[in-house]
Amino acid sequence: MVNYAVIVCALDTKGIECKYMKDLIEAEGLQTLVINTGIIGAQLIDADVGNEEIARLGGSSLAKLIQQGDRGIAVETMMNGTVAKLAELYCEGKVGGIISLGGSAGTTIGTAAMRALPIGVPKVMLSTIASGNTRPYVGMTDVTMVNSIVDISGLNQISRKTLANAAFSLVGMMKGHIPETNEMKPIIAATMFGVTTPCVTAAKEYLEQRGYEVLAFHATGIGGQAMESLIESGLISGVLDITTTELADDIAGGLLSAGPRRLEAAAAKGIPQVVSVGALDMANFAGLDTVPESLRARKLYKHNPNVTLIRTTVDENKLIGEMIASKLNPSLGPTAVFLPLKGVSALDDEGKPFFGPEEDKALFSAIRQNLNSNVQLLEFEAHINDEGFAVAMAETLLNMIENK
C-alpha cells in the first residue's frame, strides 16, 4: 500500500504552482496524488482525482456548479467533496500526508480536508492568509500554516522559495520517523497559563510520578476547545482544569473565549474532574490600542506588545462564579472545585498589578452560593501557585480516578 503525498489544488488557477510542488516532492522519492478542486479553466497537469468526482461527492455536479455561477456554493461543494474523498483515501491507507495551496477559497477547502484527518498525519497549508486569524482554518488540529508572502499567481523569485519550503516541510514530516513506545499510560488533561504555570507544573510532576501522562492545554480559547474535544473522544481518564480563564473572556468580552461548551465535556461524560479558578482575574485583548475605549479606564496590564490584560470586576466575577456552578452541577462523575483564597494567578497576589480581594471574594461567594451538593467544594488559605495547593488538587483527582 502506497502512502501518498496528497496535493489538494485548484488546477484551473494554481496548476503551475501545483506542478512545481509535485515535481519537488517526487524528486525526494515520494509518490503524489493530486486532487483537483477547480471548477473551470484549462489544467496544466492531469489530476488523479478529478473535479467532477469531487463535485459529485460534494452533492452536486460540475456542470451544475458552472451553470449556477455562484462562487460560494462552488467552494462549499468542492470543500465537502474533498473532505469526503480524503476520508475515503485515509480509510484505504493511502494518505501519508497532505499539502494544499491557495487564497481564501483554497485555504478553506484544503484545511477542511486536513481537519478531517487524525492528529499526526502531516498537514501543510501554503496560504495567502496565513499571517492573519487562522483559527477558523486550523481549528483543533495540527495543521502547519505557511505564509505565501506574495499571491499564489505563477512562479517568481519569492513564490519558488515559499512553495519549495512548504513542499519540503511535508517531505520532512513524511520521511521523519517518530519513535514508537509501548507505554500506554492513562491520560490526564490539564489547563495552564503562564500565570498558573507553577501550580500546573507541581501537579503534573506529582501525577507523572504516579504513572499518569499529563497533557497540558494552553487556555487560549482554542486550547480549551481542543481539551473539551479530546475529553469527548473518550481518551481522557481525568481532568485537572486548573486554569478556567477562558470563562473570563466570555463574560468580559476578551479574545480568548473557548465558546459556550467550555467546562461541559467532563461533566457530561462522567469523567473525574478537579476544577479551579486559575487566571479568572483577567480577560485578554491584543495590543493596547485594541482595547475598547469603554474599557480603557479599567485596570490594565501590558503582558507583552501583543497581549493586554484587563482585570475582571466584582460584577464579572459574580457572573463567572455562577457560570462555573451551572456547568458543574449536572456532573455525572466525581467533581471537586478548589478555591485558592489568597489569589488566582501570579498577577493576583499582594503587591501585584491585579491583586483584588474584593473581586476574588465575589467569585468565591458566587461559587459557594450556587454550587450544589453534587460537587465537592474545598477552600484553602493559599495562593493558586503554592505547591501545597497544587499537590492537594492532584491527590484529589488521583483518588477520584482510582476509586471510580
UniProtKB/TrEMBL annotation:
What Gene3D superfamilies does the record point to?
Uncharacterised protein family UPF0261, NC domain (3.40.50.12030), Uncharacterised protein family UPF0261, NN domain (3.40.50.12020)
* Residue span(s) of domain UPF0261: 6-177, 185-401
State the protein's name: Tm-1-like ATP-binding domain-containing protein
Q: Which organism is this entry from? A: Paenibacillus aestuarii
